[in-house]
Amino acid sequence: VLPQMRAADPAFTRIFVETIRRLRPDAPSFLPAEESQAVRPACVGSCESWQLERRAASSLSLAACRRDFVRRGKPLIIDGLGPHMLSTECCGLSREWLSSNFGEKCVAVYRNFREARNGEEDKAELMRLREALALL
């Protein structure tokens, strides 16, 4: 069934197999060999100027993530983060939550955005997310 699932919806199949692997310790006994031991590279990309490191969410602290990746502007693949993104703490994405967690990030704010521009370009202003949310 997995080959047909993968052909129809690869993203769903990947999440489905990951969930089975996480919830069922006996998954290797009934999953096909190529699915039961999915090994992902720790680093994607062969050139040092463009590489993505992969870390498990369970072994990555917020401090280490900020220090090693966010402040340096390095991209990162975080495995196992999905269930945490759906937690009740952040799912609402309230203005207060966004402001307290991402308020210092710079965003482009469009004040004159509209579908029909008549040759006119949209004007954007860079500001902190906290300031942009206060304008809403």
Structure write-up:
By secondary structure, the protein is of the alpha+beta class. The protein is built from eight helices and five strands. The strands form two sheets. The chain has a three-stranded mixed beta sheet with strand order 1-2-3, with no helix packed on it. Helix 1 crosses helix 2. The chain is elongated and about 55 Å long.
Q: What is the radius of gyration?
A: 21 Å
**N/C terminus separation:** 49 Å
Strand line-up in the sheet with most strands: 1-2-3
Number of helices: 8
The best one-word shape is elongated
Question: Roughly what fraction of the amino acids lie in strands?
Answer: 15-25%
Helix content: 40-55%
Structural class: alpha+beta
Let me know the average pLDDT. 75
Main β-sheet, in a few words? 3 strands, mixed
Could you state the order of secondary-structure elements as H and E?
A: HHHHEEHEHHEEH
Q: Which regions contain 5 or more consecutive residues with pLDDT less than 50? A: none
Strand runs, count: 5
Task: Identify the notable features of this structure and list them briefly.
136 residues, alpha+beta, 8 helices, single chain, three-stranded mixed β-sheet
Q: What topology emerges from the helices and strands here?
A:
Layout: H1 2-8, H2 10-23, H3 27-30, H4 33-36, E1 43-47, E2 50-56, H5 62-70, E3 76-79, H6 82-85, H7 95-102, E4 106-110, E5 124-128, H8 129-135
Helix pairs in contact: 1-2
Task: Describe this structure in a few short sentences.
By secondary structure, the chain is of the alpha+beta class. The protein contains eight helices and five strands.
